[in-house]
Amino acid sequence: MKQRVLALLTAMVSALALAVFLPATSASAAACAAGWSASQVYVGGTGASYNGHNWSAKWWTQGEIPGTTDVWADQGTCGGTTTPPPTNPSGFVVSEAQFNQMFPSRNSFYTYSGLTAALSAYPGFAKTGSDTVKRQEAAAFLANVSHETGGLVYIVEQNTANYPHYCDTSQSYGCPAGQASYYGRGPIQLSWNFNYKAAGDALGIDLLRNPNLVQTDAAVAWKTGLWYWNTQNGPGTMTPHNAMVNGRGFGETIRSINGSIECNGGNPAQVQSRINLYQRFVGILGTTAGSNLSC
User: Fold this and answer.
1) Tens digits of residue pLDDT in 243-272
2) Fewer C-beta within 10 Å: the chain N or C terminus?
3) Reported pTM
4) Residue 76 DSSP code
5) Catalytic residue among 64, 137, 148, 252
């Protein structure tokens, strides 16, 4: 009897020793979030995985490596297959997340995919010069676009009384789509029959006879905005593209778009609205505004 009790006690002690000295089975690690990317912008509360841990951004961050700065909160280890970070096949300096941050109330017509699809029409746009210049040009274009469309809300000109006025009958090709068909459309509000013809000829699209494409096809709409930005001086002395890549500054882009009405003290409130948007957008893109902001 004594021997059996002793054997039982010995077994219990051995079991306790094993419980003390053997590592406990760890709980399953959380699934890894999308992998951190240096080019991605993260706003407060968004997550990413890095080096086997999930991290949560405390506030806006870009390029700050998780674990090396207090902008990231460690959410613990993670396991399994890491979802790759979102890619940007177009190579555009503005990510879709940044685009959505710039235009939180935009009309669903103005898609990011439509914008990136339009970039091939003008390959030098936002891809010329230093990384700073590329970001500044993208911010300048989008700031002017935002001002023209109320934050990418309006697809067409709101004052319908103006519609019949945009047909220049002195042009040999006239207004085949109808006299009242060439009102402002798209991100830079393309208007007048001669502008629809010029933009269409440059883009290989018959916009003179089919102006409605600018309000029904997002890629076409964005292409017309890029056409103006990259090829037209407007009331200025250079294209907005040249103004940004040659160091003339954001103010010169305002002059090229609406300088005859807004610049030289014509409408300082409108100029300041454009400047405010530009300063906000360069902040989102993580760069500086540069000089010569006003016209």
Assistant:
1) 999 999 999 999 999 999 999 999 999 999
2) N
3) 0.71
4) E
5) 148
